[in-house]
Amino acid sequence: MWSSSLCLFAISTVVVNAFQDTSPFIFFSSSEILASSPQIASAASIDKTISTELGKCPSDIYVIVTQPGASAEDYKSTHSSPYLSRLVSGQDKQIRSSFSVANVLGEIDVSALSRTLENRCGVGTLHVDASTGLFDMVDDMKPRIIKVDFPELPTGAKRSAVVKVNDIFLSNLLDMIPSTKYSVIYTTTPVSSPRGHDSTEPSPYEMDQPMSPLVHMDLKRDIDVHGRAASNETSLPLFEKYQYFTPGLFMALFVSFILLSILYVGITALASLQVSYAAFDRENGPAAQKK
């Protein structure tokens, strides 16, 4: 009983660790392309299948998207990626073929796919800066590759929002394509893990290379900004530069005023006392003789 439980636990641990190094792959096209959608596949098998189908030059525009640091969980919800979900699920009548792989072992060779299209279809390449959204769109109908490189997905609460923004960016890009014959190859890379596979303890960080000149420039720019802010502060008027009446000082002055008022009332009461001078004289009348 114990041995079977341990074996099941070991197998499940291996499966979980294997899925941690996988990432999804999405493909859809307005042309008829025959391909299956397995739940898990190797990057080499997908490379072979896609290269064979794209070698037939089925489209005029080939959009190759690269999304680092992604997992299958990022695309399960229709709220984070509504456009991709609609295209892959077949809701768009313009899309005639699509398939997706939730867990791809390894990374798709995007450069090899580009070379295959360049050699067999004679296409050109157009790069899109996804961080700024700027690119040079052409109006002719020549076959082209449009490469879109998204930045790595962040970790935390903003992750789903970034996935949705990238989904909207891809939707707007496809709307501006001059041809209705296009294919989209959406590749991803696994989420980078901060822990090593051979040790359960986190490895200490070691800088491989010294700080780059760009970082030095950013630090210098930050110091210049603080220097300008300090110079602006020195040119301010005296009462705007310093705060003289702080809450603590105001409270101390208020309490001092109350105590001084009490002291003044006490001194005034003592000073108002009146005693006649006869009260301190000896009694010389009949009453004093009887005593």
Task: Please state the CA-atom Rg, rounded to the nearest Å.
Answer: 40 Å
| Strand arrangement, major sheet | 2-4-1-7-3-6-5
Q: Major β-sheet, in short?
A: 7 strands, mixed
What percent of residues adopt helix (DSSP H or I)? Answer: 40-55%
Class by alpha and beta content: alpha/beta
Mean pLDDT: 76
Apparent shape: rod-shaped
Q: How many DSSP-defined strands?
A: 7
| Portion in beta strands | 15-25%
Helical run tally: 9
What is the strand and helix layout of this fold?
Elements: H1 2-20, E1 22-29, E2 40-42, H2 43-54, E3 61-67, H3 82-88, E4 97-105, H4 110-121, E5 124-129, E6 144-149, H5 159-175, E7 182-188, H6 213-234, H7 238-241, H8 247-271, H9 286-290
Parallel strand pairs: 2-4, 3-6, 3-7, 5-6
Antiparallel strand pairs: 1-4, 1-7
Helix pairs in contact: 2-4
